[in-house]
Design goal:
two-stranded antiparallel sheet, Pentatricopeptide repeat-containing protein, transit peptide, repeat, 5 strands
């Protein structure tokens, strides 16, 4: 009797499981790529999520493979509807992941808060996260862990902002900071500091002077760290002979050559390597491979070859899945090819299934990137015609384009339109409007936007960009508003 009951139970469970799988497959065919999570994809959209808590996503990265970009893009186009920030953590700006993620963030800068943070040389993901989080908040004192788990204390006021100078392309001033650090008995340049210094020398002066600096380095660890930026110099100059000789020199001296160095020199051989892949019957070349190759060609100034790769990538796209279309569209946008962007958008509409909000946002961003704001407005109109609830994340993409072009009146009209439709502005909305009002010197409105943005995020550490905060601080100073200035400083 017991065995009979168990057998009937297993049979019932099997029937139920088959029904769930059948329903899931039917939903996937109908265009719900997230059927394994939810039967109704509309329940996962941003627009039906309200009053969700702020989430910080901390992602340690190292290296870059062809599958990584798809994973990272999936992460930052999250369906989570609450306030969300992404902190991508790398050991060094010489890690290929640093540059790939930086470009990815730029594509989505109007509809998410994200940054790439250099946490320093570390051995574990937890150590990277710890080192970065100690600097993330606005404290004066920070703590960091070294490889041997020794705790160090740092004071912000004691260290000039090298990264600020570097990001502003003020290479000679950044080199002066290194000279100052070298003169301080309490500070010792790490291996990665020497690597950064060599890179600055190459950018500010020449590759030959960077070579001289490299030859003066004594420590094997320092020479290993500095080898990548020097190799990068050879690759950027398309000097195959020097690059090959340098790689052989590293190996002959017993210095380990990591995959990043091989990836770098592969840029010189990419066409030959790709031809070998095509001739190998065991290698299946899809749209992602062609997109990767197109990006490599583009970064090396070979735009014609990049265009040819994207044409081949189009031929590999699936007629039943929309994922590849956004990747190819983004590549066309990077080449400033408005026809390619438009072609991909039109082709993607023929794919069965409902177009997700995230895809509308990607298409609008690509159109704006190639300077076709009218096309972005058209895409926004199509999204608005079919949306069930107005989501400011979509309008923020267009709002940012208006502000960057100093069309503050159009930005205000769009903002009021979204309010009339029942949309709830988020902190990014107020930040974009704040920037527009600062540009047009409507400082009272800018202050109002800042207050509204901060009121949404009282429990978190989001702050407007530094240049906007400085502009508002100067406004208070000019107005002689001591009370407002005091409250402003207290909040920030």
């Amino acid at each position: 009797m017991i065995y009979l009951v168990l057998a009937l139970g297993w049979e019932a469970a099997s029937i139920f499981r088959k029904g769930v799988i059948k329903n899931m497959r039917r939903n996937i065919v109908d265009g719900n790529s997230f059927a394994f999570l939810c039967d109704n994809i509309d329940e996962l959209e941003h627009s039906v999520q309200e009053n969700l808590p702020r989430v910080s996503v901390v992602m340690p990265l190292k290296g870059f493979g062809k599958h990584n970009l798809q994973n990272w893009r999936t992460q930052i186009t999250s369906l989570y509807g609450g306030p969300l920030e992404f902190l991508f953590i790398v050991e060094s700006k010489y890690d290929p992941a640093y540059h790939v993620v930086s470009r990815l963030i730029t594509e989505y800068k109007d509809n998410l808060e994200a940054k790439v943070v250099v946490a320093g040389l570390s051995t574990t993901c937890s150590q990277k996260i710890h080192n970065q989080l100690t600097w993330h908040f606005n404290g004066r004192v920070a703590y960091s862990l070294t490889n041997n788990n020794i705790l160090h204390i740092h004071y912000r006021a004691d260290v000039p902002s090298f990264h600020t100078k570097f990001s502003e392309r003020r290479y000679e001033q950044a080199l002066e900071i290194f000279s100052w650090m070298e003169s301080c008995s309490s500070l010792r340049l790490s291996s990665w500091d020497h690597a950064a210094r060599l890179d600055l020398i190459a950018k500010a002066y020449s590759t030959s002077q960077a070579e001289e600096y490299y030859n003066k380095l004594q420590s094997p660890a320092t020479r290993q760290a500095a080898s990548f930026p020097l190799l990068h110099c050879y690759v950027m100059e398309r000097d195959v002979q020097k690059a090959e000789t340098f790689m052989a020199q590293l190996q002959s001296h017993g210095l380990p050559v990591d995959p990043h160095s091989f990836n770098e020199i592969m840029n010189l051989y990419v066409a030959t390597l790709f031809q070998v892949m095509l001739n190998d019957e065991t290698v299946k070349v899809g749209w992602s491979t062609y997109c990767t190759l197109a990006n490599i060609f583009r970064k090396n100034g070979l735009n014609t070859e990049a265009q040819a790769c994207l044409v081949k990538a189009e031929a590999k796209l699936s007629p039943t899945g929309r994922l590849g279309y956004s990747f190819v569209m983004t590549c066309y946008a990077a080449l400033n090819d408005s026809d390619g962007v438009m072609r991909m958008w039109e082709a993607s509409k023929s794919v069965p299934g409902r177009i997700l909000t995230a895809y509308y946002m990607a298409a609008m961003s690509c159109s704006i990137k190639v300077g076709d704001i009218s096309q972005a407005e058209c895409i926004f109109g199509k999204w608005e015609a079919g949306c069930r609830k107005h989501d400011v994340r979509v309008s923020n993409v267009l709002l940012g384009a208006y502000v960057r072009n100093r069309w503050i009146e159009k930005a205000e009209r769009l903002h009021l339109h979204m309010l009339e439709k029942g949309a709830c502005p988020n902190y990014k909305t107020w930040e974009i409007l704040m920037e527009g009002y600062v540009q047009s010197r409507q400082m009272d409105k800018a202050v109002g936007c800042m207050k509204k943005g901060l009121s949404l995020l009282k429990s978190c550490h989001w702050r407007p960009p530094v240049e906007l905060m400085e502009a508002i601080g100067k406004h208070f100073e000019e107005q002689g508003s001591a009370d407002d200035a005091y409250r402003y400083i207290k909040v920030l």
